[in-house]
Prior knowledge:
Elements: H1 4-17, H2 24-39, H3 48-68, H4 70-86, H5 92-111, H6 115-121, H7 125-149, H8 158-170, H9 178-188, H10 193-202, H11 204-219, H12 222-225, H13 230-255, H14 261-281
Amino acid sequence: xxxxxxxxxxxxxxxxxxxxxxxxxxxxxxxxxxxxxxxxxxxxxxxxxxxxxxxxxxxxxxxxxxxxxxxxxxxxxxxxxxxxxxxxxxxxxxxxxxxxxxxxxxxxxxxxxxxxxxxxxxxxxxxxxxxxxxxxxxxxxxxxxxxxxxxxxxxxxxxxxxxxxxxxxxxxxxxxxxxxxxxxxxxxxxxxxxxxxxxxxxxxxxxxxxxxxxxxxxxxxxxxxxxxxxxxxxxxxxxxxxxxxxxxxxxxxxxxxxxxxxxxxxxxxxxxxxxxxxxxxx
Length: 282
């Protein structure tokens, strides 16, 4: 059963970690695992309500993206369908719609076959901790390559959208930060940090929207829904949306001025520390 404390804490964690390059899935796993250690809950128990709650927390951060980028998203949708009608994709917003669509296709192509394996990792916080270390290393490398070997640009392309889509697919592994990997691979491909970050956030929309709609119908028995603690699930979703909106706003300001190295250090330190912690307690 999702408690109010669990709901609020994980809502805050999701709102922060979905957009910061520190892996929201990892932090949800850590928060839930530590909660289970404190309450003495069996790690091997697969709780459908927890999995559904995780989907709803991601839906909360989707709301944050939709609200923050509402004008840009409206222009993308409008120009995309106008381009289909006129068979003219020269408009920048129409191109961006194509790039988001192509990136999403490559995300699904890579992530879907790995879905069952990755869902089981949710119950292995030790492995998730190691993957978080991997996120830190990738962030370090992307900043180094971007600074020393790439001429930075604010222009998206089909190739860059495919690269970032594949990076998002790889982030199906909990511990690999979705925003971290997509921004990092955007930097690897030559994008400047702000452009890579904005596209990373926009790329979440189709995936989270699709997951939020499809998962309850495909994976959950409808009769189970009545037993969920809907009050706390909704509270967690709202908290996730509010914190996520504020995180987008201030993180975009941050990346326009500073590197991602601080988050790389965070992932390395947190990953190493929690690897030791969970190997000792679990």
